[in-house]
Amino acid sequence: MSSSGSDKYQYLAALSVNIISISYGAFCGWPSASFLELASENSPLETGPLTGKDQGWVASNICLGGLFGTFLFTWLADKIGRKQSLLWMALPNLLGWVIIPFASNPMHLIIARFIGGAAGGGCFTVIPIYIAELASDSIRGVLGVFLVLTCNAGVVLAFVLGYYFNYAQVSWIVSTLSFVYVGCFWFMPETPQHLAKVNKIEEAEHSLRYYRNIKSNPTKELSEELQLELQKLKTTEKPGAEADDDDAEATGVTWADFAEGKTRKAFLIGLGLISFNQLCGCFAMLNYTAVIFEQAGSSLPPTVAAIVVGTIQLVGTYASSILVDRLGRKILLLVSAVGIGLGQSAMGTYSYFQVLGYQVASYSWVPIAGFSFMLLLAAIGLLSLPFLVMSEIMPQKIRSTAIMMLMSVLWMISTFVIKFMPLFTETLGMHGTVFMFASLSFAAAIFIAIFVPETKGKSVEAILASLYGYKVYEGFQQRAFVSARFLEPIEAKRWSVADIGTVEMAGIFENSLLRHKTRYQLLATVIVNIITFGHGVGVGWLSPTLTKIQTPDSPLDFEVNLAEISWLGSMLGLGSLCGNLTIALLIERAGRKFCLYLMAVPYACIWILIYCASNVYFLYAARFLCGFTGGAGYVVVPIFISEVADSNIRGALTSIVMLSVDLGILAGYILSTYLAYHVVPFLAIILPVAYFIANMMLPETAPYLLKKSQLSAAENSFNYYRNQRNAIGEETSKDNFEELRTAVLAQQTRNSTPLSYKDLITKPALKGFAASIVLSTGYQFSGVFSFINYMSDIFKASGSIVDVNTATIIIGIVQIVGVYTSTIFVDIVGRRLLMLISTMGVGIGCIAFGCFTYFAESYDLSDFNWLPLVLMILICYVANIGLIGIFFLVLVELFPVKIRSLATSISVIFLSVLVFGTLKLFPLMLHYWGISITIMRFSSLFANPDCLLSSRNRYQFLVTWMVTIVTFSHGLGVGWMSPVMRDLPTDQSPLDFPVVVADISWIGSLVGIGSMLGNILAGTLMNRIGRKLVMFGIAFPYMMFWCMIYFVQSVEFLYVGRLLAGMTGGAAYVVLPTFISEIADDKIRGRLGSMILLMVNTGVLTGYIVSSSFNYFSTPPFIILLPLSYFIGNFLIPETPHHLIRKGKFEEAEKSFRFYKNIRRDDIKAESEFEDLKTRLIEMEKDKAQSFNYKDFITKPAFKGYASAFVLLFANQFSASFSVSSYLSTVFAASHTTLNLTMCTIIIGFLQIVGTYATTLLCDKFGRRILMLVSSLGSSVCLAVFGIYTHFAGIYDLTAFGWLPLVILSFYICLVNIGLVGCVFVLLLELFPAKIRSVCVSAATVLLSGIVFLALKIFPICVADWGISVTMWCCSGCTICCFFYFLFFLEETNSKSLLEG
Fold first, then answer.
1. Beta bridge partners of 934
2. Half-sphere exposure of 7 (CA within 13 A, CB side)
3. Using CA atoms, how far apart are residues 1213 and 1014, in angstroms rounded to an integer?
4. d(CA 711, CA 715)
5. What is the pLDDT of residue 789?
6. CA–CA separation, 985 vs 994, rounded Å?
7. Segment holding 470, helix H or strand E
8. Digit-coded pLDDT (tens) for 1030-1043
């Protein structure tokens, strides 16, 4: 062979064939410039400007066309040859360009893009095969990169032409490339490998001579090297193994070819590379190049930027073509993936800072640089090399099929990414979208580093050998040890135990479904159950969707009533019936495999109908087809599995039918719950496509082929499913096949007489029918299948506290666990025992579930509202281990062989009728009768008296939640005003009159004066008119507050509104602690009292969020509903027993006592408890009436209470807790933080809730004193550190630590709320002697309000005059002094009775 110029014809062929790639690249780049013209007001389309939605369809439809072209041209490449297939690509390419100039609406463009995309699918599938089959090993990399190089050249061509010409002129210009392509490529010969494959050896030799530039006399024999290469074309060698049989290549591609170790690994590597090729986001961003730069605010015109980027991408691909055979594929892929991630990170950072409002105009070059860098590195590796590597690592026999499958995956992923790119940018923002792609690019780098082999300079045989686990040198093959342990089962034919060095791995699968003999049976079972999984998705999807479409926010344009929902559910049964009948007629005539194929069509139609639904009849049709698929699947899939499976694993494999259905139901629950109605069909329609493609590789079952007298095909099928393709066990395999053949022939002999009605009335047949009727009836009338379809409605009706969607998903998981349990035990303990356990468990569970819902209508069972979920878990689990999980297995096994197919079909038809009936009636029964089955009480579960949900405490807990609605509302008002007050003195003020800083000071502090007035009024009135009437009264000033806010005309309206808000808070802080302390048991009094501040802080957080998210005037009309609901709720609760006893209303007091303690009338112990309370209160009142004078206020306990109360109130306010909450936005603004102020405010609000909630958990467990010590010391330290930071931030540039203020204040808020805030009202009640408690608590609350006013009035002044640093240091000093007082003088009051003297 001549070395000089020996490769020039290979280069010529590669350049000629890639002319069409230039045209396709232009097709890819065409939208970038054209979208700007088509979406403008001067759009040439008759329908007007192209909308964003239409842009998504036009851009992404090229991928759908690519998917179609992948299948079409791969099939043609094997049928008519690589060359002819490539020539035919010119036709769709030309049509795609010609349609564009004549387009008058978006649909025309979509069609054009689809047709042009079909040519692209052929390019990326057939061209890599063509190049791999003609290229020498030394230049295969360079020629393989030409595909992406020319494609990128086409992209640049489209960018440049789009800059100078309109979109129609571009189309005419580029369409000429189709003619140039045909003229140049016409003279290239077919590839040598394909010619040898079709036994055209002489033509293959001429082709090889042409591509290797051998111009010697044709009669002269080829050199030894060329003869060896030609010999490789004739046979496919396997390293380290004997050559395959002569007809190995002639046999069709099956899953067995993909199951080999080398092929499986190669396919998975290809799948990973192809997936990351699209998931890195480069191709998607390329389609929106001009739009991306326009949105990024780049200083360059978008079209110019696109041309620059395209040129850089072309340079990158050219660099790849130079480096790929020097540095290797793997290093380029690694550098590429990391570089893409870095470039995208730079773009995302720029966009993120732009969103945050930073001035980034001077850095407008960043998005172009980042995007250019990204595409440069992408073109060098991740966008260009996967197609080369993919064609290099695939074995010759499956190369076309494997590349077709991988390219199909690529087009599906590409369609998804391009279609949803605008949605991603709208939802996540440009920065979020780019950061998402960057993370995937770094993931690609990890994948490449670990899994992708280096293929530079290796022959195809050496590459395949390395994947298989061989090392090839000097004609000697040696199997790698790692591969022996992990990638391929031990084969006695090639390797002994001594060769491998271990026998452990050989025994791992000894008794499993994955052992050598049965793994293809498992594989076939998994494949055919893709459709049953899809059926489960359709069934599970309905349950949450029914809830959605009955709400005002229904995703549909039409309403659905109860009768329609009933039909919607039951159409599944009708469809199942039709599916049963259809398959029963076809299964023996057309075969199992044809019936399996058939099910893909109606299933695909399901999701098309759901997506396009314009009235309820679309949904009816979809549910009917879902039932049709399930009905057909429940007949043919169990029969198929029983005929391919060994008898000892038949039960386990058949159980996978229901396991896959339950997995699908769970997937349906999750998809319907968390994804939008119209998104689910896009994902679900992938299933029938994958199912159809996978089934192409499976042979028909051996028993069916034997019945049709196709002995050769039956033996091949038998050997395939028993994995007997080699000499190992060949004799055993033949013996087993002969046994099967004999059995089938004997069966046919017995069945030679026509099937008559007498066969259906034999004793075994009748016994089978009886058993099937009982099974079907139990299956349906147990209600489990109806539960699955209406799960969301059932949980809604049961009163469960668990979120309906969450409960539904939990049940889906439980179903899977149940069926998986049945797969484990069905061949161990047998069918009968599982059915007994299952039916008994379902019966008990259903009785208990209905019993609960029945009594829940008459009694308060809120202690047990977790029980519906537990019972449904029990029902679904035990149903799936038997009644559902092995139903179809038992059904197939019940009948005699002669009538099995017919009898099974009849039974499934009967089941379908029952399905229709139960699904039709269940929603009606649920609506008219309710869920009326029984439950037992398990009150002992909440026997712990300290549990807030125990029988005794639950009404105290419920009432506390109800009355603290007003403190939540008060907190909401406080939190809402914080961001509002920040904006009032600025140009962003929502008001039409000026508000100055002095006004802000009064607005902030008047809440303190109002609080003082509320304290005095509530303290004066609550002993005279009662706690309940005072609680009624505090709703009115709060409603007036929001009215003043809404109708504001001047700053005085805000003054009055804040004064009224303060009155509500002040009164609530007096009356609610007293009310709660009088209704609560001693052991939970602390937790219930802490809920006051918990609700306040929750309200503060809500106020922050509401104020930041909604405008000023939209909030009051909705928030005013809170005090109204609080006012109405107060009608449902009685006065406290303490106040009623003091007023001499003993009968009402006893009723109140029993209500709050949840005590029955006949409880004698409770009566004595009430009498004890009454006696002690009466004696206290007598003692108070006799000796209540000034001396009671000057006792030692009283003075000790005054001191502790003063220090407590002083620490509460001068720790800056309330001031920081009220002026939080101002504090953050003064702290020099670089974070978003609104985000910081919301985080602090959330942490306030966390701190206060921690108080409710800890104050009764560890006591009040320890919490006050931790709170005061921690708060002091945090305030001091915050002051130090803000001091130095004013002197030095600490922007690198701009996050630190948020961290410090987060710690501070948590610590101050677990004690100084959370325990203040609990301690105030407990500090004073019982005799003077009411007066002292009122006086202390008035004092607190005065301190609140003082703190809020001086805090902004101190910050303005002293600075934030000195202000915080002063607060820190005050707090540390209070810490020492608490350490030495504060007593513990935990668990002490309020009646103790």
1. 851
2. 13
3. 18
4. 6
5. 55
6. 7
7. strand 470-473
8. 888 888 888 888 88
